[in-house]
């Protein structure tokens, strides 16, 4: 290893890159990490963390409505100030940037500011200086984009721009049907914005269980979000009152902002990967094997740039596995099955394991348990919101294959049940577990009669 400047050179100080750097250094490796923007990557700066803070901010309107309609509170003069939220969010992100810097420093990782490019399988250049490394790790993440087929797409903002708007729009059109589009629809609606969400497919959140998708659509419409499926934006143009979006059916929408949440691209181009012999797939993702090794043995990749499962905890997991494989004599393959995930919509949704359709596509016979109910918190209020919980169970083994939920605290609840799904527990073991009363979570251990079998 002494033939190289470093044992590991990491390109990208996002969640995965930082975790791989710190752990590798703890195993005795000489590590450097280069970052051209900000420590913490997308999640900390323009993703999970600020978005969840925005969700919290936007949820207070519903909380106040429930407090006044059912719990005896009288709230007068409540006002929302967008600049205050932005300033508070920025302050927290700056704090987290500092935390990431200190963690790297304490681990003995050398931090380098600047854009890194790969010059050959063992050489990286930053700010005109070249360094050699036995191993190079690409952890550059992904970037949102506006589809080129949308004429005037440069007038739209992406999720990144939504975190830095000078003022809160009165009307917004959100284009897309993934979790980012769904979350921002809830955020803006909760802050009092008129929201229209467009999705070209018949139902949003492709890949989630169909009952989650349909139930959440009903809840969002009830909250006042104008959901329009089977439609897309063909053109965006300036208008005297902001922007005009012309849809592919010829209809028009006026708005102050158009948010394109239509997908993300791996940050793999123009950093020398292809020139070094690294194979990229058709969308630009770095193709890797089970151990996150690229087509060039000394170059590895984790996180969104591989387009395997684009979730922050998965990138962390992949970083841990890679550090153990390279520097701890403990080869580890990242596991991408039974990964829990949440959509911080309003109400939120969460899932772990197989959807009903996935289980059937595998040729399994399944018992499906489903419960839809009005949570106790809403019973005194005017709210008509309902929670939905669902279990997908293998008919033969009675193993619980999937847990799915839409409702308040869905992410917190499903995180716990993810342990049970990962452990392969059976429906009998769920039934034998005593519930905590009164909670919504207890519904998962009290459902006795399947709504469908086979």
> CATH topology of the largest domain, anyone?
FAD/NAD(P)-binding domain
For the record, the CATH class of the largest domain is: Alpha Beta
How far the N terminus sits from the C terminus, by CA atoms, comes to: 58 Å
* Share of β-strand residues: 15-25%
CATH architecture title of the largest domain = 3-Layer(bba) Sandwich
Count every beta strand, where a strand is a DSSP E run of 2 or more residues: 22
Radius of gyration based on Cα positions: 24 Å
Helical proportion? 25-40%
Counted by DSSP, the helix tally is 11
Descriptive tags:
seven-stranded mixed sheet; 30% helix; alpha/beta; Enolase-like, domain 1; 3 domains; 454 residues
Your description of this structure?
The protein has 454 residues and is α/β, with parallel strands linked by helices. It folds into 3 domains: 6-48 and 83-144 and 265-327, FAD/NAD(P)-binding domain; 153-262, FAD/NAD(P)-binding domain, CATH 3.50.50.60; 347-453, Enolase-like, domain 1. Helices cover 30% and strands 25% of the residues. It is built from 11 helices and 22 strands. It has helices spanning 15-26, 41-46, 48-70, 82-107, 159-162, 179-190, 210-222, 312-327, 356-361, 410-422, 427-431, and strands at 6-11, 31-35, 110-113, 116-120, 123-126, 129-138, 142-144, 171-175, 194-199, 226-229, 233-239, 242-247, 252-255, 257-260, 264-266, 299-301, 341-343, 349-353, 366-373, 387-394, 400-406, 452-453. It is globular.
